[in-house]
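Example (one chain per record):
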Amino acid sequence: MSVNGVGYFGRFNLNSNVGATGATGLYGSQQNIRLRQSNNAGLQAYIDAVDNDGNVNQDKIKAGGVNTYTARNRIVEGYAAEFYAGQRVEDAAEMGRNLNVLYNDLNSNDPNAKSAATFSLVASRYKNDGKNYDNGNLKEVLNATGNGDLVTGGVGDTDVQTLGAVTTALKRGTLKLSDIYGPDGKDMNGNASVKNKGAYDKAIAAVQAGDLGNDLDNAGNAGNAGNAGNAGNAGNAGNAGNAGNAGGLQDTAGMNPVNSLQQLIQLLMKMLLQMMMQMMTGAQSPPNPFQNSLGGSGYNQQYAGFGY
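Predicted structure:
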C-alpha cells in the first residue's frame, strides 16, 4: 500500500487497545498510535516467570490474576524489550525504559527506527509461538552487511544477543528488513534465517493488526484461551549493543496515565508540526521505506503498508 496514494497525514486513530484493530500501520490509510500494553508490574511478572532457556512459568506470568491474552502480551513485550537492550534484563524499570524506546520508535517517522521496533515485536511474536531463527545464518547476514562489529558475545548462538544485534543494525540503518526475510522467505544469502515461513507470516500479520495477545492461529480474534506460550531461548552471554535508548520516552513508572497522555500529546504535536510544514512547503509525501522489504508489495499488498 503506497503512502503516495493516501497522503502521509491521512485519518489517524488513537487506539490504545490491542486485538482486531484493522490497523494498516503508519504508512497506510489509517494511522494508529501504538501504546505499550504491559505496565512495570506485568514486566516484573515476565522477569519472574521466564528462565534463561525461555521456559515460562504459567502461574508467575499470570500474576495478579490476568487472563492468557494479557499474559502473552507480557511475554511478547518483555522479550522484545530485551532485544532492544541486547541482553537479558532483570529490572522491570530498565525493561520498561527499553519498551518505551521501542514504542517511540514504532510511532516515529524514522524508517530505520520503525524497522527495528517492528522487527523486535515480530521476532518476539514468532518466538512465542515456539518457532526459531537460524542464529548462525543471521550472523552471516550481519557480517555480509558490514555489521561485524555487532557479532560479539552470544551473537550467532543465543537468541537475545543475536536478535538484539539485528535490531541494533536495523535501527542504525546498516541492515534492511529484506536482508533477513525476502518474498521467498529467504535471507539475502539465500538461506533460511527464518525457519518457518508460515508462522512468520502470521506473526507479521498479528503485529500489523496490533494483536500481541492471541495465539498466532487465532490472531485478531479476542480472548483466545490456553497456554501463554514460550518466550524463546533467552541466552545469557554477551551484549549485542543497545538499540538506542536516546530519545525514548522514559517512563519508569510503567503505565502511568499522566505519562501515557504526555506521550500521546508529544506524538500528536510532532505530527501536526510536520503536516503544517508539508502544507507550507508543498513537500511530497515520503516514499514507503518498507517497499519490497520483508515481502513488501510482492508478498501481500495488505501488509506492505506496515513494512513487512
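Caption: The beta strands are 12-14, 31-33.
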